Amino acid sequence: HACALATTGETYCWGRGSSGELGDGVAHDSTLPLQVQTTQRFTQISAGAFTCGRNGTGEIYCWGAGGTSFGVGSGSNGNALLPVRVASNRAFTSVAVGDYTACAVTGDGNVYCWGSNTEGQLGTGNLAPAAAPTLVAGALTGTAVTSVTASGDHACAVAAERAYCWGRKIATGEPDAENP
């Protein structure tokens, strides 16, 4: 599926929606853009197996395939047919969604991730999934992150003009659940 923001702040999604990825309250596919059913006006969106939008106050709402990996970050597992608020009182400056994993940056430069963690892509030093945003540990602690990206089995962040990545090792194809 894909999503886009209108200049007036509404969000539209289209494509595969069998797990609620279109955010209109129904699990179905659509070849036409459908308006996401929410009163939130997002300033940023990111789509993967589910979609997350960040509003002007830094709250994140997610919808779509949550499954047993807690992807939508609401504190419980399962799919979300409509946007649900991520279980956090932090204000986020950006969000990135991969396959069943999402990461977000706070105003003070910390990175929090949630969802599936089969390859260590949450950066917590273990392989346990997280139902809500969890602080990325290791080398990023105390380092002001400026951007983050999430993929199917790894995530990366930029801090102090350096890239930090964690999760599955890309070059060798071997899993690595160590801290970033």
What does this structure look like?
- It is built from no helices and 14 strands.
- The chain has 180 residues and is mostly beta strands.
- The chain has a four-stranded antiparallel β-sheet with strand order 4-5-6-7, with no helix packed on it.
- Strand 5 and strand 6 (60-64) form a beta hairpin.
- The model is unreliable at 171-180 (pLDDT under 50).
| Number of E strands | 14
Q: Strand pairing plus helix content: what structural class?
A: mainly beta
For the largest beta-sheet, the strand count, sense and barrel status come to: 4 strands, antiparallel
* Largest beta sheet: strand ordering: 4-5-6-7
Total helical segments: 0
Shape descriptor reads globular
Let me know the average pLDDT: 89
**Rg, nearest Å:** 15 Å
Low-confidence stretches: 171-180
Strand content range: 35-45%
Note the gap between the termini. 30 Å
SSE run? EEEEEEEEEEEEEE
Summarize the amount of helix as a percent range: under 10%
